[in-house]
Amino acid sequence: MTANDPSPNHLQLTRDGQLRHFLTLDGLDRELLTDILDTADSFIEVGERRIKKVPLLRGRTVVNLFFESSTRTRSTFELAAKRLSADVLNLDISTSSTSKGESLSDTLLNLEAMASDMFVVRHSQSGAQHFIAESVTPGVAIINAGDGRHAHPTQAMLDMLTIRQHKGGFEGLKVAIVGDILHSRVARSQIRALNELGAAEVRAIAPATLLPTDVESLGCTVEYDMARGMKDLDVVMMLRLQKERMEGALLPSEREFYRLYGLNQEKLALAKPDCIVMHPGPINRGVEIESAVADGPQSVILNQVTNGIAIRMAVMSMAMSGQTAERQQKLSDTGEAAQ
Amino acid sequence: MTALLEIDQLLGELENGLRQLLEDRGVAHPALIGIRTGGVWLADILGKRLGIDEPFGELDISFYRDDFSRIGLNPKVKPSSLPFDTEGRDIILIDDVIMSGRTIRAAMNEIFDYGRPASIILATLIDLGARELPIQPDVTGRTLALSSDQRVKLRGPEPLHIELQSSGQ
Amino acid sequence: MNATEQTLRITGGRLFDGQGELRDNPGLLIRGGLVAGVGDAAARADSEYDATGCVVAPGFVDLCCNLREPGNGQKGNIASETRAAAHGGFTTVCASPETSPVNDSSAVTHLIREAASSRGAVRVLPIGAITRGLQGELLSDMAGLKAAGCVAVGNGSRGVINARTLRRCMAYAQTFGLTVMFSPENQALAADGYAHDGQVATRLGLLGIPEVAETAAVMEMLLLAEETGVRLHLSQLSCARSVEMLAQARQRGIAVTADVAMHQLVFTDQALAGFDSRFHVRPPLRSETDRRALVAGVREGVIDAIVSQHQPHDSAAKQAPLAASEPGLSSIESVLSLGLELVQRGELDLSRLLEALSSGPASVVERRAAIAEGMPADLCVFECEGQWLPSAQTLLSEGRHGPVLDRSLPGRMKLTLVAGGVAWSDAG
Fold it and tell me: Which residue in A25, A142, C200, C264 could disulfide with C269, CB within 3.0 to 4.6 Å?
């Protein structure tokens, strides 16, 4: 017996299936994921113009609410919002009110008084954005910019856009995700996206200490040996290794990790010759990946950055659109009720 | 009624009107831009008829619509594609039907984001009147006055034809 | 009605007297706060209560209840939470030592008992803290706690710092014949987890508490109990493997009893799938396999008691992202109803459910819960089929975070008597 609907869709989709928040890829079907990728393609074209800006969110206010600081991710969301002509407010909460003991609910109440239309939220706790989406005023869209170990859906979608650009599609692809999957919200979203979009195989390559319990249930196979795991790969996605992983007895040393799970030219040669190399950044050279590979011809790491802006523009405009549609729906419902 | 909307006849009107206007204005090398989807089919045909070798541009105005806050984003938006630099060019902007003028406003805003053109000529196959903005086509195939239950739509690309529907039927 | 010489006769319905099967109620006579007669002895009385269509059972006994007093009052107090208990059919609740200040001294025990006797709707049996401040390091004054009226000692939901301290706690409690109550959890293995380490936690990126955090602690406690000879009560088991070890220990003759929280018999980790912080409980809700094994443990009598593990909170403590919320459900008013749903689904017999709510837990604290001549008239009357709607409006607890809200549940409580006095009645 479950106490509630386990699907997050009642939260992030409108009645007719449009995005209204973007919290997780769980429950989003292939068609919607493809719509996001297609819309992002159009925004990539916008980014190539002399004036890289469209008026879609003109007059709207987007608040970047970062409870966990990340200049990189925040900057791409900021740029995306500005290219949609929105007004952007950056709030680095990690250094303000919550550290003084204010609860998340109280912080939100204060921010809502600013009449924002969208919150882009990063938080160190899994599910924080779900909580915010449940308690926020109707009409305000929540975009997940990373929550705890749970999800980083825009990162996964920009990775999918990058793969589609280089491989044409997902059918038949063999993809590996290498490194600290246990702590990675990126990996969880990537595995989900690859499964939904039809990749043939997703392999998790890591030592047992960096894999969550029953990781196969996410939709992947497990490979402890990287040389075996690299075989026949079309795409290899490296994850960032946080320095503090050495402390909790999860790994003996960076050196040993690099020797066993770092990507160098020798290991890359075991994959298909046209295998692409991805990394969500920032890269720890010599810990996850060798410089010659990161900067080499098979690396698409810089494409990922460009695609990140387009994906975020797509998701923001689609969520705002869904909120708009929902408000119109409600107006017409109450209109009918009044008649 | 259908006879009035013979596609070849309207295209002929449009072609002749454009030739005349280009000559009057002394425009030697115009660039064509069609608004998706009907305007793109027309740009293809008119480009050939006017002997313009340069590939024409395709504009998807979804990101520039002024009714986003009412109807939201077109879920099937496609990238615009302008295979030439608009800066300093003489542009012929083509759409199938003009009514309120809002689509043309959005299209002109979008064109300016690629660069500042020298001039824009607006050509539409059908003008239905009912304008809400001070925008007029320079050349048009036919001006029509429809009753409130009638709708007109360009279908294509093969065969290109005009469909006139009455919701009363 | 006070415990006067007024007499009350309860007729009709079915009777569960504390053991065996339910039977037709032969009529109960209550006088002077006691059950004065059953059957033929229940003659004419000053007033009558018609229990037709209802079950009459001994008042329930809760081995784990947080009354939040002493405390700052935001989460509840003895008056509000004992009223909620009476609404749930409970007539005796064991007060967890996790108060503020902690019940680690006879002064606090006296405070609780005084508040309970002046403002409590039901009987309150304090559990003393086995370590000072529940810090898990230094022994509390157990002999003093016992003398002040604590019926057992335990460490609440918190662990003891290491096995050596645990061994000494047990040996010292054994000296005074005190029962020790522990929630088995290996702190190093539980670490900063807050959800069952399984598929749901993996998918949602929740920090997991592995089953071995409980089973390793159960094994350690059983071995230490066997060695020290203390009477051990394991509180709130959550794992299938724990039930298995418990059964084996019983076979070896170890003096061990155990309870399970009702929500562990009903829900699984799937309840967290929407990040619902209401279901952030400790120990965490585990898998369906565990749930079934726990129900079987109750069915077969390996687990002696079902508890509410009632943990009322103010809304701010629960209105937060899962990891930031405080663990616990406001459960005491829904225990019977959730149990009746298990009965309806055929997972548990009604008589076994009532036994695990009354005589089972009573025997753990060396008491008796029965409807028999000469026993205190602690009983409840409820309709099995009658529905009620738990909601922020209908719950009496200060905690509004019930396990089921805004959905009708079976088991409508009609009347709760403590020593013959009305502790709760649906007649108002």
Answer: C200
